[in-house]
Amino acid sequence: MNLTQEDWIAQLEEDENAVILDVRTEDECDEGIIPNAINIDIHKGQGFISEIEKLDKSKNYYVYCRSGARSAKACEIMNELGFENAYNLLGGMLDWDGEVVAP
Questions:
Q1: What Rg value do the Cα atoms of the chain yield, rounded?
Q2: What is the pLDDT of residues 45-91, one digit of tens each?
Q3: Which residues are catalytic?
Q4: Do the beta carbons of residue 33 and residue 22 sit within 8 Å?
């Protein structure tokens, strides 16, 4: 499910079962991440799928990348793997005006 930044933040703040997932490359993450995000690079192919499969499917995942394209794909993959709640941040980090921290 695609969410605007406002909806993504509002839903995240109300969600006690939330996990923030950054699917960018390590180099991109070095430029800053959303606080408390975990990084699993979608470009790792099968390695990405292997890492995703280790995650708790009962949690709600708030997924982002640089522009929103890779995170949308990540949400699709997660849905196929049985994750019911994966939310894509539309516009990604390019449009993000919230807090950013060093990884």
A1: 12
A2: 999 999 999 999 999 999 999 999 999 999 999 999 999 999 999 99
A3: 65
A4: yes
